[in-house]
Amino acid sequence: MLRELEDPAVWSNPERAQELGRERTRLEAVVGTLDRLSAGLSEAGELLELAEAESDEGTVRSLETDVTRLEGEIARLEFQRMFPGEMDSHNCFLDIQAGAGGTEAQDWAQMLMRMYLRWAERHGYATEVFDISYAEEAGIKSATFQVKTPYAYGTLGVEQGTHRLVRISPFDNQGRRQTSFAAVEVLPVTEQTDHVEIPENEIRIDVFRSSGPGGQSVNTTDSAVRITHLPTGIVVSCQNEKSQIQNRAAAMRVLEARLLERRRQEERAQLDALKGDTPGSWGNQMRSYVLHPYQMVKDLRTEHETGNTAAVLDGEIEAFIDAGIRWRRGSAAS
User: Fold this and answer.
1) Contact 160/283 with Cβ under 8 angstroms?
2) Domain boundaries 200-275, corresponding CATH code
């Protein structure tokens, strides 16, 4: 890679040069982190010998804390090795769509949105909501938001698919058990170097007033933006920002992410066709959340499960994500 970057001819292909530049930056960051961790561990070892020789218990306890922190950084580096995908290091968009079932499914979609936002909050990750389409009675019809942290796409990509909820419906006067579905789509946020060209004549832009729960207007101006990509029929909208210009820019970012993912899926399908039959995608029904007649959340791909449904719905989904990442890695290797 370094030799290729040093060759002046590489700059005749700007996209390749940018790709190599990103890879070099990533690798330099990894090497720099390893050098820093190695120096830290070496220094801690030398100080530990001195502290033990002088029976300095305070320094020993301080070093134990430092070593624990270094071990955590090493574990994070090891975890990142599980993300070999080109887009895995990017931030991501989560798009949640209520399935069939009216109010029950719409309430479930909002519960899922809260679960992911709570997960991000627990880890200190920034989020930005781009669009929420509220339902009439309760819940949401759809929502799109961004999770901003390195490797967000690689981490949350395993959450893509259909999520199934079984419970006694709070909207059923007869207290009957209901099954609801909601779909989660995870998209990588495109960077400036990701080439997604969208000609102006291929999009239609509509503006409207932002709305809140129950359809109430939350803005007196037509600042919300809906963009339709005419060749594919993809529709995205944004109403979170105060100005129409900001909402248009945000909606275009989501559209670029969708088009890039569509292109990647088409390329993957072509490769799969050349390879022959492949196992079914994990992007369909992937997890069940049962609140009645018993309590259990179970991932249908990894078989990981827990009876602590309240904790999961409050954002404690780390074990499911970790199991999903390992399952994905194993599937890719087989």
Assistant:
1) yes
2) 3.30.160.20
- CATH class of the domain at 92-189+286-333: alpha beta
User: For residues 70 and 66, what is the distance between their CA atoms, to the nearest angstrom?
Assistant: 6
Q: Whose CA is closest to 94, among 222, 283, 254?
A: 254
Is residue 153 within 8 Å of residue 84, measured between CB atoms? Answer: no
Single out the residue of 109, 145, 120, 181 nearest to residue 321, CA to CA: 120
DSSP label at residue 85: S
Which stretches of the chain are DSSP H helices? 2-6, 14-53, 57-80, 103-123, 152-156, 244-275, 309-313, 318-333
Task: Give the C-alpha separation, 166 to 177, whole Å.
Answer: 7
Q: If you write DSSP's letter for every residue of 191-244 in order, what string do you get? A: PTTS-----GGGEEEEEE--B-GGG-B--SS--EEEEEETTTTEEEEE-SSSSH
Which residue in the block uniquely carries the two structure tokens 């079984």? Answer: 166
pTM of the predicted protein model: 0.69
Please state, as a whole number, how many other Cβ atoms lie within 10 Å of the Cβ of residue 40: 15
pLDDT, tens digit, for every residue of 119-177? 999 989 999 999 999 998 899 999 999 999 888 999 999 999 999 999 998 988 888 89
Distance CA 252, CA 228 (A): 10
- Residue 251 and residue 227 in contact, taking contact as beta carbons nearer than 8 Å: yes
Question: For residue range 88-130, what is the model confidence (pLDDT) as tens digits?
Answer: 888 999 999 999 878 999 999 999 999 999 999 998 999 999 9
d(CA 221, CA 217): 10
CATH of the domain spanning 2-80, picked from 1.25.40.10, 1.20.58.410, 3.40.50.720, 3.60.21.10: 1.20.58.410
